[in-house]
Amino acid sequence: MKWIVNPSFAFFNSDKTGYIFNIPNNKITECTVEFIEFIRDLHKIEFTYEDFCLKIGCEKEEGKKVFKKLCDESVLISYKYKIDKFQNTMFNVKFIELASFLTMGYKEKIVFLGFPYDQSVTNRAGCKFASKGLREISRIIYDREYSLLSYNEDISDISDFIYDIGDIKGIIFDRNGPEFSFLTNIIFSLVCTSNFPIVLGGDHSISFSTINGASLKGEIGVIHIDAHDDYFEFNLNNWSHEMHHGNYLGGFANNDAVKKIYCIGIRSLTPYLISNDKVKIYPRKSIFETFQLDKNLKYYITFDVDVIDPLLIGGVGTPVPFGFSLDQIRELLIRLIQEFEIVGMDVVEFIPDKKEEILTICSLIFECVVQQIRRNQND
Predict the structure, then answer these.
(1) CA-based Rg of the chain, rounded to a whole angstrom?
(2) Within its chain, how far is the Cα of 149 from the centroid?
(3) Does the keyword field hold Cell cycle (predicted)?
């Protein structure tokens, strides 16, 4: 009988610790770095029990115990199926299963992930379709089969640095359901391996999970780019009932791993935000005059599209007038990635009902991708 490493499991490591990510059960367990290296040698090949014993370097009886344990835990399974390929990817780049991506040990890659969820919106819904809409239009910006934009000539082939791991589940979710903790684990696994996740939302409640995942690796700051502050403290023990897209930032008020929260572009402010010392407000009018962030921190960016003036981008659930121009938001995103160490980002609250607007948001995302690749190459 032939065996393979379970393609639904991911194996990754930081400098000193290995991790086994049981993706179907959303469970991460620690192991040794040596075990991860051993599993990587077996990844994506078929092997017999005898091959396994030879590879592990022990007698058959001892190897049998290890082999049985890995089979009992479903780390090793009999080879009997293939993985379907996800057809439509962001900027037409490579699709790869999350488990394969992590186990193959990629580092410093841009990784797209869709989270099509909008069950916590309070006004207009539809941002659950953003990941699909953005992927469909994004190949106009860059198609690896045909062209490369001239202003990116310093990057030989941008598709070498970008992967798309598809969407989490489908477009129907439970309100604040188990997919949220799954998203947290995925972001942790990508940040832990020095990759740069870009999550395509989804309403802003998904950032509760993305920021939690990024903060599991170590202390971070949050850059919240939004027309609204989305801040109201709630009971974390009851977050699945109380957290929504208008209060998710309140979940980090007492999170010691989130040291600073910078709110940029706010035009609709609640008084509850001002009472917390870790929060700093940069309203739209002062963004290019007094912009100062702690350079000793790494940052996660959460980009709510409604920060842009609704006359320019109307596909949002809760528009607020007098927002950023397209040049201003482009300059802001470029400057943040150039000047600060960003560990990942999400793009939320976008309703993809006009092709021109989808193309604009794709272009802004592409700018972020190019800047992050350049930063990786220069570090």
Answers:
(1) 21
(2) 25
(3) no
In a domain, 85, yes or no: no
Nearest to 148 by CA among 138, 137, 159: 159
The residues, any chain, with a CB within 8 Å of residue 361's CB and separated by 6 or more, are 134, 305, 313, 347, 350, 352
Most distant pair of Cα atoms in the chain: their distance: 72
> Do the Cβ atoms of 42 and 65 come closer than 8 Å?
no
Residue 336 domain-assigned (yes or no): yes
- Listed residues 53, 78, 103: the one ending a domain: 78
Query: How far is residue 320's CA from residue 203's CA, in Å, rounded to a whole number?
Result: 16
Contact 94, 163 (CB under 8 A): yes
Sign of the dihedral through C-alpha 121, 126, 132, 135: negative
Smallest Cα–Cα separation from 203: which of 234, 240, 269, 247? 247
- In the chain, which ranges are continuous DSSP H helix? 33-42, 49-56, 60-72, 98-103, 130-138, 179-192, 207-215, 239-242, 271-274, 326-339, 355-378
Q: Tokens 């990941």 appear where?
A: 131
Q: Which of 129-138, 206-215, 260-269, 364-373 has the lowest mean pLDDT?
A: 260-269
Residue at which a domain ends, from 16, 48, 78: 78
pTM comes to 0.86
> Can you read off the two tokens belonging to residue 375?
């930063």
Number of domains the chain is built from: 2
pLDDT tens-digit series, residues 286-341: 555 556 788 899 999 999 999 999 999 999 999 999 999 999 999 999 999 999 99
For residues 132 and 40, state if they share a domain.
no
Question: Which pLDDT belongs to residue 289?
Answer: 57
CATH of residue 65: 3.90.930.60
Neighbouring residues of 34: CB distance < 8 A, sequence distance ≥ 6: 18
Question: Do 39 and 172 lie in a common domain?
Answer: no
Q: Tell me, yes or no, whether 54 and 201 share the same domain.
A: no
251 prior amide bond cis, ω within 30? no
153 shares its domain with 59: no
Task: List the 342-348 sheet strands across, edge first.
Answer: 94-95, 162-167, 110-115, 196-201, 342-348, 298-304, 220-225, 258-266, 279-283
The verdict on 43 and 109 lying in the same domain is: no
Which tokens go with 4? 């393979």
Domain co-membership, 189 together with 121: yes
